Amino acid sequence: MTVKKAIRKNLFVIITLALSTGVLLYFLFTTDGIITLGEIVTKLRLSWLIMAIVSAVLCWGCEGYALNLLCSHLYPRWTYNRSFCVGMIGFLYSALTPFSTGGQPMQIYSMRKMGMDTGKAGSIIAVKTLTYQVIMVGYSLVLVAWKLHFFQTTVSNFSFVTIIGLISNSMFIFLVALFMISETTTDKLVNAVIQFLHRIKLCRHPAERYEKIHSQLEIFHDASKLMGNSTKLYIPVLAVTVIQITLNSLIPYFIYRSFNMNSAPITTMVAAQVFVAMVSAFVPLPGASGGAEGSFYIFFGMFFGPAILPAILLWRIITYYANILFGAVFAYIGKRYNVENAIPEQ
């Protein structure tokens, strides 16, 4: 593929990333942000910043471990190396696509290239996605109840923003659960959507499209039954996911401490990050660009004060741009090693 074709193919992503980076750099250089950043760098406590970076890396490890638990349940010969690469591919494409929609399909595609059945791969990714969303919503509900008064009195429109985030995530959980549990209802829903798209001239051959999707759904539902209801399988996956979300939620606190600040309670900052993640999850731009920075500014501005823009910059480098860089590296490794050494169908 030529450079021109590559740029044309990824033009939307390139523009969005450029705008996201440009806006952040604009505010850094046109406000006191760059001056504050300079002052912070000279006094930065590297030990805390390293802890933020380690937390991000451990999040990657947890993602791979949770995936490996599910993959090895159906494929005993599956390795952690494969699961880790698949997890990083998910981070990469979630960062590069609107609504983070590209992560899961590319994970399924990669798993298929590594030798896994498409239906089984789809079932594993659906279970992993559902687990993450359920834990995230549960985490959010607990923290809303615990820190409700504080955020209501310090964050404008907190109730509205939180309700929107909870509803969006709950709807997503419902749809994924429906997709896994009820074959008949899912089939009817798919048929209704296809017929609607046909009526508005967005689907030319509804019958053919339905048959194609229907056959894939049959494979998926058969694979979902194979996952079973093993408590020994799902409890460790849930536990690892809780650890993963907690580690991710600690990153802003570690950045905060690296700035030589220590007055904010760790539990309050963890709650703020969970709300940021929940609210920005459905921003329709790659990596929730704009929405992530905006929600971080709203929830963490009270803690960082004048240092909020440098904090956003470091937070996005660690939790977003690093996912793109290292996700691309491991996507390449996964393609070069795991695809070329695909496991035989089991």
UniProtKB/TrEMBL annotation:
Membrane topology: Multi-pass membrane protein
Listed transmembrane segments: 12-29, 49-71, 83-101, 121-146, 158-181, 233-256, 263-283, 295-315
Cell location: Cell membrane
Pfam families the record matches: LPG_synthase_TM (PF03706)
The protein's Enzyme Commission number: 2.3.2.3
UniProt function note: Catalyzes the transfer of a lysyl group from L-lysyl-tRNA(Lys) to membrane-bound phosphatidylglycerol (PG), which produces lysylphosphatidylglycerol (LPG), a major component of the bacterial membrane with a positive net charge. LPG synthesis contributes to bacterial virulence as it is involved in the resistance mechanism against cationic antimicrobial peptides (CAMP) produces by the host's immune system (defensins, cathelicidins) and by the competing microorganisms.
PANTHER family noted in UniProt: INTEGRAL MEMBRANE PROTEIN (PTHR37693:SF1), PHOSPHATIDYLGLYCEROL LYSYLTRANSFERASE (PTHR37693)
Protein name: Phosphatidylglycerol lysyltransferase
UniProt gene name: mprF
